[in-house]
Each structure stands twice: as C-alpha cells, then as structure tokens.
Amino acid sequence: MRRRDARLLPLSSAVLLLLLPAAARGISSSFEATAPPGPVYETTLEIFHAGEPERVVERRTVTGRGGFTVDLEAGKDFGVRVAGGPVLVPRFRAGDPVKVALVPPVGLSLAVGAGGFGQWGDATASSSFTSGSGEGEFASADFSLDGELMFGPCGCFPGSPRPFLHAGSRFLVDSKSDFVEAGQFGMTGLLELEAESRANLYAGLGAAFPVAWRGRDLLLKGSLNYVPELVTIRGVINEQAFISSAFFREQKREVFHGVGIELAGEAPLFRYGAVGVNAYASAAVNFYPGDQAESVRVSGVGGNADFRFEKDLVSARGGVGLRFGWLGPVCGACDREERAASAR
Predict the structure, then answer these.
(1) How do residues 301-314 score in pLDDT, each as one tens digit?
(2) Got the DSSP string for 43-79?
(3) Which of 21, 60, 72, 133 gets the most CB atoms within 10 Å of its CB?
(4) Cα–Cα distance between 57 and 78 in angstroms, integer?
C-alpha cells in the first residue's frame, strides 16, 4: 500500500499544479450597468488591477444598460472606471458581482419651435371733446428660441429629476392690436390707442423627470420662469376739420414683469452617442400681478388726450418644436451595496 501511495503522489501533485493556474484565471465577476430612464449612452468601462502598479486588464463597451462577465485572477483587487473618466468602483475582489450606475452630469441644448401666444388688456382714452374705453387682445403665431443647461439626476428626490436652467425669446408674427377707438370724424376728432409687443423674453429654472413609456425614454419637464414683456403703447389723435386732417402721436415703451409656469414633454427622435434630437410640446401660463398699467398723453390742436393701458393678469402660450442637444459626458457611481462589498 505504501508503494502504491508513493507512486500516486507525483501524479496527484502534477494534476494539482495544472489546476491551480486555471483556477486563478477562472474566477468570474459579473458586471451590470444600469441607467435611469432617459437618454441611453454607449460607454467604455475599464477594469483595472488596483495594486501596484495599476494596469488595465479589460475594456468593455456597454450601451446604457446591460451586463457582461469577465474572468479575473483570484485573490487580486480590481476597480472599475469610465475610460478616460471617473472611477466608479474603487476596489473589489475577483468573483464579486459589480453593479455601476451610469449618469450624465451635464448637458447643453438649443431648441427651435413655433406656437401661438395670447394676452389681454383694457384701455381708456379721454379728452375735452370725447372719451371712450375698450378691451383687446394680442393673439399671434410666434417663433421661439430656447437655450438650456441640464444637470445630472438628483437621487435624493423621488423620480431622480434632473434640474435645468433655461432662457430664450419668442418672436410674435402679428403683435399689434387696437384697444380703443373713440369719437367721430368731423370738427372734433378721433382718439385711438394701440399696443404692440414684438418679443417675449424669459429665463427660469426647472426639473426634468425621466419616464419610460412603451419602450421609449421620455422627459416630463416643469419650470418656473421670469417673464418680462416689452409693450409699446401708442396714442393717436386724428383731428379733422372739413377736408383737412392732422395726426398727433405719442408712444411709450413699458416693461411688464411677470412670473410664468411652463410644462413640457420631450421624446427622443435621434441619438448618436452623446448627441441627440428631441421633439417637444409645451404650454405656459404667465401671471402679471400688481399694477400693470401705463399712461401716455398726446397734445393736439383741439387739446390734450390722455390714454391709459392696463395689462390683464394672465397670458398664455403653447407650442411645438425640436431640441438639438449635446447630452453630456457619462460619469457614474457604484450603488451602496457595492461600496459596502468593496469596503470588506
């Protein structure tokens, strides 16, 4: 028996020596990349040896959400990072499952669109020879231009919204409206007041909530905006005597200050890496509290006329368009469970 065991010892030792390197190379770690609903990115991950010297042992490309398995040397410490970017998992052991969350930290975009704008107001006109009052509205098609800076998701709030800052302008196509026409032609005259608004500026901050719907990554956005509006108020006296007539005009420009609430929805149309095009639809309601009135006096041959324009509390706008954006580089973070595992 002793001679037989002695003969088997070299054979078993040789088998063990052959199996040990294979076992050292054959420890598999599974990697899972996750991302919040929203734009999907193609990202290259680097798995590196965390010892000295640090070296990259594997590179894998993932598209936003997916998984893969890599065989790593047993007993060694490794880490995961975005290629050319931040470290996502500073340290883990071969065989440990690893989960990383890919998030875009910042994005820039420019939107162009078309829509409709409406606002209302009241006006009065009075002079020594006639007076009148009236109301009117600006109802016009418009074109819009909007720039936006969007930041990374805030995981501390439900739905992980992405805060953003934006500013832009809306250019009205037909922005003139007659509010008052008082008096009659003849020996006295006719009083007219018109108001005109060419462009509406705005700037604000908001939050975008990524939502997955029927396999599509949508963005639902809400913002609170500062909405100043430049309005030109123009008073006119049209004096006529027999066959002659004379026009006397005065105008004044006034900025009305308001606050607006805007809701929008976006759906992706095209993606190429971090560049994308979204279609959007939006609706906004603007409020102009306080004393939103302005007066102008016009002097004519027959005397003076006083005109007063008062802007209503509310204006509204809706529109559609395209948003062209650079969605930002990809960074990431390991979840808490993986951090705890790497700490052990």
Answers:
(1) 767 788 888 888 88
(2) EEEEEEE-SSS-EEEEEEEEESSEEEEEEE-TT-EEE
(3) 72
(4) 9
Residue type, 96: D
| CA distance to 122, 126, 178, 196, 258, per residue, from 312 (Å) | 7, 21, 15, 15, 11
Q: Are 117 and 200 in contact (CB under 8 A)?
A: yes
The pTM of this model reads 0.69
Q: Using an 8 Å Cβ cutoff, are 113 and 132 in contact? A: no
Domains delineated in the chain: 2-104+331-343 (2.60.40.1120), 106-326 (2.40.160)
CA distance 253 to 318: 26
- In this structure, are residues 100 and 45 in contact, taking their beta carbons and an 8 Å threshold? yes
Question: In this predicted model, which residue has the larger pLDDT, 28 or 143?
Answer: 143
Dihedral angle of Cα 234, 257, 287, 113, to the nearest 10 degrees: 80
Radius of gyration of the chain (CA): 35
